[in-house]
Amino acid sequence: MATFVDRVTLHVRAGHGGHGCVSVRREKFKPLAGPDGGNGGDGGDIVLVADAQETTLLPYHRRPHRTSDNGGPGMGDNRSGFSGGDLILPVPIGTVVRDAEGVELADLAEPGMSIVIAPGGQGGLGNASLATTKRKAPGFALLGTLGWEGDILLELKTVADVALVGFPSAGKSSLIAAISAAKPKIADYPFTTLHPNLGVVESGESRFTVADVPGLIEGASEGKGLGLEFLRHVERCSALLHVLDCATLEPGRDPLSDLDVILGELAQYPVPKGQMPLLERPQLVALNKVDVPEGRDLADMVRPELEARGYRVFEISAVSREGLRQLTFALAELVERDRAARIAESATRERIVIRPRAVDAVDFTVTAEGTHEGTIYRVRGAKPERWVQQTDFTNDEAVGYLADRLAKLGVERELFAKGAVAGATVVIGGRDGMVFDWEPTLTSAAELMTAPRGTDARLDALNRPTTSQRRQSYKERMDAKTEARAELEREREAGIYSGEDE
Q1: 318 in a labelled binding site
Q2: What pTM value is reported for the model?
Q3: Scanning 164, 203, 232, 435, which has the fewest C-beta atoms within 10 Å of its C-beta?
Q4: Is 172 annotated for ligand binding?
């Protein structure tokens, strides 16, 4: 059974917004006292929070599907629906959040950092909120929008000050158990740690964390063994400590060759942009197992060669604790130096400027797309797509309200500019967007209509006569009546018709 997980795909669905309510207040002697439909409640968000008490992503490996609460629908008497509760998901410090395409969304490297990975849906407005001086009693309400749904990738990168690297069975787990309170698995037979171990070390007035990374072998960068699977846990470290086994019984191995192999594998690991490569960070060498006579002799032999390469070397024993005090003080010195450099860097770091949205920013785009069925015009934008979700297409008045909103936004003007004609296919949204057979603007005077609630006379028949046509018809009728009177007058003068009843 897995006990440590550092990569998880989380399937999330935020709560949907509640629908607005259509209601008309009725009182004694006031059968229609005005609209009183309440608004729908907002859906709950899904939030990730960096928590120092969490050490693994195992809970999300076992339960990868997470859902927040939906918002409640609005009710009459101006009662709004309840808002869905947010779902707070604690994750270990050092969790990197990415979307399904691998784009980094956030790096939760500090306690308390949070990010909303799935915003909840927006509650719909009730007809009381939609009422205006011109539309006094709307017969429709807006629907709640859907909450965000999709996949989120979580990757844990342990936040440690010092990384212990070395071959399997070099004594890294024994060392971290000796210098901290960590209790990793240790045995008297060769094996490799299967997940990173963290330990907190106190040396003088300094306190720092040490990460025991599973052993590397030659060819790890090509996928052999555990490969570079766990090196992400040392990306944030201040220093590297090479733990070399001076008492190995494997043929062809010695501390110098082990170090060369580890350095070659570390050089193959690509660190994220902006971070210092692993081999350019401060490095110390610990010659372990000097409590064994053969190990001490080998350590005395290789130490001059390592110091000639520029390394600071310590002869230690995780069993007898020899040399551990000097080693921890040296590591604390490197960690404190790195912390001071980071503080100085943060003081001169460029400030982040958040600029407000421009007043003339484009709210939507219209693109013409060629398909086997002809040209379609696709409208994309947060506002048009949200408005379509909020529209009840079984209610003609709601459809008319949507047409008014799109016209005021300038969608129809842009459709004309792109060459759309009456009857053209218009899609608002992406692949699953709403498809319309576009008719140019009927009128944007929905507020002036006196049609029954829930109806829109503009949608009855699109071939109704225009004002000029009605004026022309009226003139023709008046001309016909004038001609008929003139004909009767001529008949009277000719004696054909006297105008008196027989």
Answers
A1: yes
A2: 0.71
A3: 435
A4: yes
Residue 245 is assigned to a ligand binding site: no
- Which has the minimum average pLDDT: 3-17, 49-63, 182-196, 240-254? 182-196
d(CA 459, CA 195) in angstroms, rounded, equals 66
Sequence-ordered list of residues with C-beta below 8 angstroms from that of 485, at least 6 positions apart, any chain: none
Residue ranges per domain, the chain?
7-156, 162-345, 365-459, 465-502
Q: What is the pLDDT of residue 20?
A: 95
Cβ neighbours for 351, distance < 8 A, ≥ 6 positions apart: none
* Whether 408 contacts 444, CB under 8 Å: yes
Domains 162-345 and 365-459 share a fold: no
DSSP conformational letter for 448: G
Q: Does 194 belong to an annotated binding site? A: yes
167 annotated ligand binder: yes
In the CATH scheme, what is the code of domain 162-345?
3.40.50.300
List C-alpha distances in Å: 368 to 218, 362, 414, 415: 55, 17, 11, 9
Cβ contacts of 421-427, under 8 Å, gap ≥ 24: 424/375, 424/376, 424/377, 425/373, 425/374, 425/375, 425/376, 425/377, 426/376, 426/377, 426/378, 426/379, 427/376, 427/377, 427/378, 427/379
Closest CA to 9 of 99, 108, 92, 91: 99
171 is in an annotated binding site: yes
Three-state DSSP class for residue 87: strand
Please check whether residue 148 is in contact with residue 119, taking contact to mean a CB–CB distance below 8 angstroms. Answer: yes
Q: Are 439 and 422 in contact (CB under 8 A)?
A: yes
Q: What is the rounded CA–CA span in Å between residue 452 and residue 430?
A: 34
Q: Do the Cβ atoms of 16 and 69 come closer than 8 Å?
A: no
How far apart (Å, rounded) are the C-alpha atoms in residues 155 and 7? 5
**Candidates 3.20.10.10, 3.30.565.10, 3.40.47.10, 3.30.300.350; correct CATH number of 365-459?**
3.30.300.350
Pair of tokens at residue 60: 């999300």
440 marked as part of a ligand binding site: no
388-430 pLDDT, tens digit per residue, is 999 999 998 998 899 889 988 889 889 888 888 888 889 999 8
Could you please state the CATH topology (level 3) that the domain comprising 7-156 is classified under.
Spo0b-associated Gtp-binding Protein; Chain: A, (2.70.210)
- Please check if 288 is assigned to a binding site: yes
- Is 195 among the annotated ligand-binding positions? yes
User: Is 208 a known ligand-binding residue?
Assistant: no
215 belongs to an annotated ligand binding site: yes
30 DSSP 8-state letter: B
User: Is 19 one of the annotated binding-site residues?
Assistant: no
Q: Give me the residues paired with residue 211 across strands.
A: 163, 198
